[in-house]
Design goal:
By secondary structure, the chain is α+β, with helices and mostly antiparallel strands. 37% of the residues lie in helices and 18% in strands. The chain is built from 4 helices and 6 strands, in the order E-E-E-E-H-H-E-E-H-H.
């Protein structure tokens, strides 16, 4: 992924692991705004739309663009060592926002910044959904 504050995706895949694996694939060339952080908020909150936040923002924006109903091939799952299968169903906005928070945590975004970004998508994300 390149460019700040957003840019075009070079492609990204996030895999969540447990006994059930989920994979979200953001295609190469997907344009996103890098977490929609207004410039004025950069200095106030310390949250910038790049760096550790970037991958979480790309996946979050991808799911939001489709209002949770991802196109075929974008979301797959598998159980243990079985082959990947296309996932059927729609993401709820709340679950998409939770994934955003989880990906930020796994990327090492500091707790206070992560909580502010999560709260912002919960409060304002409905405008884009």
């Amino acid at each position: 992924m390149k460019g700040a504050p957003g840019g075009k995706s070079k492609g990204y895949s996030y895999t969540e692991t447990s006994c059930l694996y989920n994979r979200i694939a953001v295609p190469s060339g997907f344009t996103y705004d890098g977490a929609s952080v207004p410039r004025i908020a950069w200095s106030i909150t310390g949250i910038r739309p790049d760096g550790l936040l970037r991958a979480a923002a790309a996946v979050h924006d991808w799911i939001y663009q489709w209002k949770g109903q991802l196109p075929r091939g974008s979301h797959a799952f598998r159980i243990d060592e079985f082959p990947w299968q296309d996932a059927i169903g729609r993401w709820r906005r709340k679950d998409c926002d939770r994934l955003f928070g989880r990906m930020m945590r796994e990327a090492g975004v500091p707790s206070i910044k992560r909580k502010m970004a999560y709260l912002a998508v919960r409060l304002l994300g409905g405008l884009s959904w």
